[in-house]
Design brief:
Order of helices and strands: HHHHHHEE
Strand content: 5-15%
Keywords: Cell cycle, Cell division
Distance between the termini: 45 Å
Mean pLDDT: 89
Pfam family, one: Atx10homo_assoc
Structural class: mainly alpha
Number of helices: 6
InterPro entries: ARM-like, ARM-type_fold, Ataxin-10/CTR86_families, Ataxin-10_domain
Radius of gyration: 17 Å
Low-confidence stretches: none
Protein name: Ataxin-10 domain-containing protein
Length: about 110
């Protein structure tokens, strides 16, 4: 059995969740209570099988956190564990490094 019934299925699910959460605290709370924040965050990357899934995920995250202090507290507990290699960035001759002092990511040239 296929994980997704059609191309773009995950994108559509994220779009529905994002639109339902728009200025609806009850829906925002339900997403948090059902441990849905992290799975939504995981959709914030480019996926060839789900065109525009990243954009819909960003929209959904905006709607899940807007005006909801409990959700904002939940996400503030997360800590960066480091940078992830990205082939697109590597092709440009760059890599992402996590600066522990500033708590920010930065792009650096790959030394040859």
């Amino acid at each position: 059995m296929k994980a997704c019934p059609y191309r773009g299925f995950r994108r559509d699910v994220v779009a529905v969740l994002g639109n339902c959460a728009f200025r609806r605290k009850r829906v925002q709370d339900e997403i948090r209570n059902e441990n849905g924040i992290l799975p939504l965050l995981q959709q914030c990357s480019v996926c060839d099988e789900n065109p525009f899934s990243r954009e819909w995920a960003i929209w959904a995250m905006r709607n899940v956190f807007e005006g909801n202090e409990d959700n904002q507290k939940e996400i503030s507990k997360l800590e960066c564990q480091g940078a992830v290699d990205n082939p697109c960035i590597t092709e440009l001759g760059l890599r992402v490094e996590w600066d522990q002092n500033s708590g920010r990511a930065r792009l650096v040239n790959i030394t040859t």
